[in-house]
Amino acid sequence: MLRKVAMEEIDVSKKRNQSVLICAGEVEGASVYHHTAVVGSSIEFAPDTGYFHILILIKGKALFCTSGNEYFYDERVSFVPAPDKSLAVNAVTDIQVLEIKWKILEDDIHELAGYNTKFPLIQTYADSKQYRDRNKSEKTISRVMIEQRNIPRFCMGSVESYGYDLVKPHGHPMLDQFFFSFPENDMDVLIDGEHIHMTGNVLMHIPLGSDHGVEVIEGKHMHYMWIDFMVDDTAMARLDTSHIATGLMRSFEKENKK
């Protein structure tokens, strides 16, 4: 029986400044926003020691300004400012930015000190570490966008392939999870035996503990982010053992995949 699946599609057809809360209340302590800004405008984030603001530049060119420094990106990038610092994301072109607002718990402060994370935490998408796991084919390119032990109880990555390909159904009750589909994505999510079609700019909450996978048919592009929130102490061990670094820097563009 299919459990209730929360999913929302973002309308990006109109050029405008907007910030939309999506799939509200699905994961305790987490809020997800989709921001759009037209060229010449900006998205402002005030200092906020109660939350991490994990940002992903989905589309466009942007100038990130924080702690007196500027960082220009014309590619996909993950950017996490220090919680006690303000941030402005200036739109050099029209941009789309996904924000995961993740509540900081009391124990997180001590844990973060042990990680020795340097803020702003920045990871360009093209240079993200690639990994493999037993649920995916050799064709698939999997990336870690924010690795475990950088932000407490959190990690994030992506999966990319072309059809036909399959991410075998699997479950992980120690990890609560969102999927966010990049604009070019066109695939089916398999949840407890049911198929749910997922195109671009969609956020989906994977029901905790469900068997879930992904299927992409011939001629279609699978490209989505997984966003993990650790709900118990076994989550870290699972990530450590299931994500095996490949040491490669593959891209479908280099492999001439259309």
Please give a quick description of this structure.
Helices cover 7% and strands 51% of the residues. It has 258 residues and is mainly β.
Task: Provide a descriptive summary of the structure in words.
This protein has 258 residues and is mainly beta. The protein has two helices and 22 strands. The strands form four sheets. Strands 1-19-16-21-14-13-12-22 form an eight-stranded antiparallel beta sheet, with helices on one face. Strands 2-3-10-5-8-11 form a six-stranded antiparallel beta sheet, with no helix packed on it. The chain is globular.
First and last CA, distance: 37 Å
Strand arrangement within the widest β-sheet reads 1-19-16-21-14-13-12-22
Question: Largest sheet, if any?
Answer: 8 strands, antiparallel
The percent of residues in helical segments reads: under 10%
Question: Residue-averaged pLDDT, rounded?
Answer: 95
- The total count of strands amounts to 22
Oligomerization: single chain
Radius of gyration: 18 Å
| Anisotropy-based shape | globular
The fraction of residues assigned to DSSP E strands is: over 45%
